[in-house]
């Protein structure tokens, strides 16, 4: 695995060039100054062309991780070299320094509030991006919500369960997601996926993920007697709903895979961005399942 990571780093180091990175503050909430890093091609031709954007939210159990880590930066740099603007955001890590973290001893109500606030942070970042789309050379019609682990849970709920978590939805009426990229994510209830919010989606998930369920199961597989017992619905359930509405998806299943599948799939990025080009820009209907077995 270390050898593969080294190869990927070398490969993407040579790919990434002629880019501009700018950092913006999108919100200040209490002691948290929330920022986002925008990776853009140095030259956009024609000069007035507006690009689609990937808005990335890192993982870390709502207690760790940074927007500008090497892998998160590499992903956004790759996006900027392939016809997109890449943006990585910070958000409030509400479980940082707590005794229970986000596990089975963290009360269900606290988990839901943590997810809610992460959803709001993500929507605030997206609203900032839309409001400044001219300066950022972004086409607000092509917003791809993307994240890993806790970030994937947050963005998936922001896309499909906005009405559940947000009371003032009018505040975010300008934010319309056109694509989803989820690495080991889950939502509270897949019944919230409907014809209006179902969008082309990419999912990566291991069938033996013991933190974020692949299908329908308790988050972290907590015993029903634990305070943190919370049923969530993972990638498998979300794909089933998208199939119902004949919405494009790219579903990468790792049989026997665990939560390591939440890592950014660098070797597949060309295929992932091609999927979004074909489905959200060219409006093609593509439904793909790739099943691998953990080695």
UniProtKB/TrEMBL annotation:
State the superkingdom. Bacteria
Its name, as the record gives it, is: Alpha/beta hydrolase
GO MF, one term, reads: hydrolase activity
Domain named Carboxylesterase type B is located at 30-161
Task: Please tell me whether the keyword Hydrolase is annotated for this protein.
Answer: yes
Q: Which organism is it from?
A: Lutibacter aestuarii
Provide this UniProt record's keywords sorted from A to Z: Hydrolase
Checking SUPFAM superfamilies in the record gives: alpha/beta-Hydrolases
Lineage here is:
Bacteria, Pseudomonadati, Bacteroidota, Flavobacteriia, Flavobacteriales
Cross-referenced InterPro entries: AB_hydrolase_fold, CarbesteraseB, GDXG_lipolytic_enzyme
Please tell me whether the keyword Calcium is annotated for this protein. no
